[in-house]
Design brief:
Its EC number is 4.2.1.151. The two termini are 33 Å apart. The chain contains twelve helices and eleven strands. Helix 1 crosses helix 9 and helix 1 packs across helix 10. By secondary structure, it is α/β, with parallel strands linked by helices. It binds the ligand C=C(O[C@@H]1C=C(C(=O)O)C=C[C@H]1O)C(=O)O.
Length: 297
């Protein structure tokens, strides 16, 4: 039975719903947690397939294979990956920007946007994701997931919320991919049939969820009510799942390459982030090493 990761944020609620609806979830050993924990578990061999932050996949692409199934992104605003600031972004030069420890991709994207689009050089500090505490000692903060979704619906006085998916789209014309599903390379080599079955189950889960938006939003609203931040209205979740893009097509792959290129081009690549290696899909034989014929994409 494949051990499958699941991001414990509402962004994966439609997949949870779809896997329950089809019954495929019962055939899988599903483990939920925040994205950084999932990536650690996957690399430690305690998960076989999991959604991971895009930046994390790019940094570990020797050990991981990209699953050509779903991804988590948006073609414009994403509603839950934000740069929250007390003032205009142009005023962040030399000021402290707190980066959520929960995020890798949005944290990196925010740095790209601030430095290469806005043209400021802030000072960055990683911090636990708690907006109040982050903004107690910083001028701006990167926040993701359910906390970020809530911030958009109830923005505290004096704060401006900048949607990083929207900024990336207007900067590059491309959708943004925040997370991808990755498979441990050794698992993909040993169990290609199981990997294909999981890919098909996830793809089917997205299709089912897309066909039943009201039921998915109602289920996610109940899920949100159990969380520490309290219930989110169904209409907010309907809009969120409409905006979230779970596809990994040509434009999303082009965006991943562009993100890797811009990250590298800054000359200040954070540890672990390297250009996108050849994308090894599970329908073609998976090799033990990432240097497959065909070369770098
Ligand atoms: C859309 C989101 O996608 C995510 C963003 C991530 C990141 O910034 O590193 C990681 C995983 C996903 O949960 C979100 O969390 O709101």
């Amino acid at each position: 039975m494949a051990r499958l990761g699941d991001i414990s944020f509402l962004n994966c609620a439609p997949l949870r719903w779809g896997l329950a609806d089809s019954g495929a979830g019962a055939e899988l050993d599903v483990r939920s947690g925040p994205p950084e924990w999932l990536a650690d578990e996957l690399l430690a061999g305690r998960l076989d397939i999991s959604p991971v932050s895009l930046a994390r996949y790019l940094g570990q692409a020797d050990e991981l294979v990209l699953l050509p199934g779903p991804a988590i992104g948006s073609d414009g605003p994403v509603r839950s990956c934000h740069l929250v600031s007390r003032g205009p972004l142009e005023e962040l030069d030399g000021r402290v920007v707190a980066l959520s420890e929960v995020s890798r991709t949005t944290a990196l994207l925010a740095r790209l946007l601030l430095e290469d689009l806005v043209g400021v050089r802030p000072v960055y500090r990683r911090a636990p994701q708690n907006v109040g505490e982050m903004l107690g000692s910083a001028q701006a903060a990167v926040v993701i997931g359910d906390d970020a979704l809530r911030l958009r619906t109830r923005t505290p006085e004096g704060l401006r919320v900048f949607d990083t998916g929207e900024l990336w789209r207007s900067w590059t014309g491309l959708p943004m991919v925040f997370a991808v599903w990755a498979v441990r390379r050794d698992y993909a080599l040993a169990h290609p049939d199981r990997v294909r079955a999981v890919r098909d189950a996830l793809t089917d889960a997205v299709r089912r969820a897309r066909a039943a938006p009201a039921a998915v939003a109602a289920s996610a609203a109940l899920e949100s009510a159990r969380g520490p931040g309290g219930a989110l209205p169904e209409e907010v979740l309907l809009d969120y799942f409409r905006v979230l893009d779970y596809s990994l097509g040509d434009r999303q792959l082009a965006s991943i390459r562009e993100f890797a290129r811009r990250t590298e081009a800054r000359g200040e690549v954070p540890p672990g982030v390297r250009p996108l290696p050849p994308t090894t899909f599970v329908d073609t034989p998976v090799t033990a090493s990432p240097s497959v014929p065909g070369g770098r994409q």
